[in-house]
Fold this protein.
Amino acid sequence: MWQNALTLVVDRVRAARSVVAATGAGISAESGVPTFRGAGGLWRNFSASDLATPDAFARDPRLVWDWYRWRRERIRRAQPNAGHLVLARFETTLPGFQLVTQNVDGLHQRAGSRRLIELHGNIWRARCTAGCGLVTDVSREGADAPLEDAAGAELPTCECGGLQRPDIVWFGESLDPGDIDRAIAAARGCDVLLVIGTSALVYPAAALPLVARRAGALVVEINVEDTPITPQVGAVLRGPAAEVLPALEARL
Ligand code: BJW
Ligand code: ZN
């Protein structure tokens, strides 16, 4: 039972000078946003690894945009859950708290998190592919359209006429060096790292628990399933993030 491991985690969080949380798609699962690799992670029989690549976009930008528009409308209808809300409060209740996310859904911001590193970009922004570099807020686009109408819309273009793409880090693309450097520094400098709702398969984000562990931090995995890092963490809180995080907060 994860309630037993909780006592160790509570003690270490209370004593910590710095706590870092690293989240993945699992934190938003209870908000109704599908994860990438679990059941429901498929869209029209494509997996994320088929669509979230520069090659896929070069081959068929309409297909990729349809997928992102469909996801955007699902996310728009979702609400931050109890797990997101606890992490937003940790910013003011825990010393030196830093949140790092692989998620692009913006639910951490909607829950109130401000000190946030988004490693893989944000689905509510588009970016010009023609080299002018303009980044556009697309959070109002399609807001009034029903979910079904999102597919097949025009391809979005920049003010300069260039094709826009989602402002997201795809497979084989580099993360923003400033973002990953700050995330690694936070992992290296923390006393407790909470790894929440990630399959820990995608690098370099998956290296953060190893960095923290080597630097002497307690690494805590909060997940409904085992992952490749489970054998290497100091504590496992096996359960849904929207239940485990409020239970942790209540004990602090
Ligand atoms: C719950 C729950 C509940 C469910 N409560 N939990 C080193 C080694 C091997 C490979 C590489 C390497 N370095 C780089 C690579 C290549 C690649 C990579 O890692 N590939 C691996 C898959 C093998 N990495 C990259 O390409 C990265 N770029 C890079 O490294 O640049 C340098 C470079 C340049 C050129 C060539 C090579 C390297 C970029 C990675 C970008 C990832 N982007 C994506 C998609 C775009 C975003 C989008 O459209 O939304 O980001 S992939 C997708 O996976 C998405 C996610 O952020 C990411 C991570 O997924 P996550 O969050 O872990 O979700 P799931 O679904 O996998 O897991 C959910 C978890 O939640 C599960 O464990 C559930 O059990 C759990 N769960 N309900 C708690 N209620
Ligand atoms: Zn442009």
Q: What stands out?
A: The mean pLDDT is 93. The pocket of zinc ion (ligand 2) is lined by residues 128, 130, 132, 134, 158, 160, 162 (CB under 6 Å). Residues 68 and 250 are 37 Å apart (CA to CA).
